[in-house]
Amino acid sequence: MSEPVLATHGLMKSFGALIATDNVSIDLHPGEIHAIIGPNGAGKSTLIGQISGSLASDAGRIELLGQDVTRLRTAARAQAGLGRTFQISALAMEDSVFENVLLGAVAATSGAWSLFMPVARKVALTERAMQALDRVGLAYAKDTRCADLSHGQRRQLEVAVALTLAPKAFLMDEPMAGLGAEGSRNLTGFLDGLRSEAPILLVEHDMDAVFALADRISVLVYGRVIATGTVEDIRASDAVREAYLGESA
Predict the structure, then answer these.
(1) Angle 181-194/151-163 helices, nearest 10 degrees?
(2) In whole angstroms, how large is the CA radius of gyration of the chain?
(3) Which pLDDT does position 113 carry in this prediction?
(4) What confidence category does residue 112 fall into, taking pLDDT thresholds of 50, 70 and 90?
(5) pLDDT tens across 219-233, in order?
(6) Distance, CA of 133 to CA of 74 (rounded, Å)
(7) Residue 220 — φ and ψ, nearest 5°?
(8) Which of 95, 131, 159, 228 is deepest in the core (most CB within 10 A)?
(9) How large is the average pLDDT for residues 54-61?
(10) Domain ends where: 145, 166, 187?
(11) Residue 86 covered by a domain
């Protein structure tokens, strides 16, 4: 098997007496969608926060393309190639679709938009932003205020912002949340194609989407991974059925 693009080794995180992440070691390989599932309160979003850099780990190591990024800040991890979409939208709601993506493109180059910026750089950043919008099918809405988008369109826009980073790996925290059946099907199809651009570590409660997309699934319960395997492995696991899936398997 190829070397992992992203890997965690023995991650730990506690909040007082509560152990939210308990010795978690997972990895993500090129072209793969690796889903993280588990009941509410299992520690999934805490784990994503540790990997993205928004939460400091108490112990353990995080590697991106073989580089130890454990002590890097969130922005530095993003610039190293870690693209994240959020469980709760972090978009600038009063700005246009294009302005949201342009800010991502500027951040990806460690710079700031300025009147004194060379014209060539402005053109390059604008093209980068428009390419990301075209990639997710939102170029037609570039002048639309973000607040006027549907929930599904905002999810698409978050992916476009992440794409401006030219990510080596995506972290996606419940991208299907709030979508109806049609929206979930559309986003599932999009993510299926996106894996060829960069592998995806996916936290998701929509089990239809998980079973349709995942190459591997890790099940998190009380902060600890109780099983990792293919869809068939997870469906067949008595421990997973008892702890989480129940009749949905």
Answers:
(1) 10
(2) 18
(3) 52
(4) low
(5) 999 999 999 999 999
(6) 23
(7) -105, 125
(8) 159
(9) 96
(10) 166
(11) no
Locate 195 and state its tokens.
């894996």
**What is the percent of the chain where pLDDT is above 90?**
50
How many domains is the chain partitioned into structurally?
2
Q: What is the pLDDT of residue 244?
A: 77
Kindly state whether residues 68 and 176 are assigned to the same domain. Answer: yes
Say yes or no to pLDDT of 55 above 90: yes
Tell whether 35 and 107 lie within a shared domain.
no
The pLDDT tens digits for 117-149 are 554 567 778 888 898 899 888 999 999 999 999
Q: Are residues 74 and 113 in the same domain?
A: no
User: What are the start-end ranges of the H helices in the chain?
Assistant: 44-52, 74-80, 97-108, 119-136, 151-163, 181-194, 207-213, 231-236, 238-240
Residues in the chain: 249
173 pairs with which residues across the strands? 203
17 lies in which domain range?
1-81+167-249
Whether residues 238 and 190 share a domain: the answer is yes
Taking a C-beta distance cutoff of 8 angstroms, is the pair 96, 144 a contact? yes
Give the pLDDT score at 117. Answer: 57
Contacts of 225 (CB under 8 A, 6+ apart): 24, 25, 26, 218, 219
Give a yes or no: residue 204 inside a domain.
yes
Are 51 and 162 within one domain? no
Give the domain CATH number at 173.
3.40.50.300
Distance CA 23, CA 39 (A): 18
Residues 145, 105 share a domain: yes
Q: Which pLDDT score, from 0 to 100, does residue 121 have?
A: 62
State pTM to two decimals. Answer: 0.85
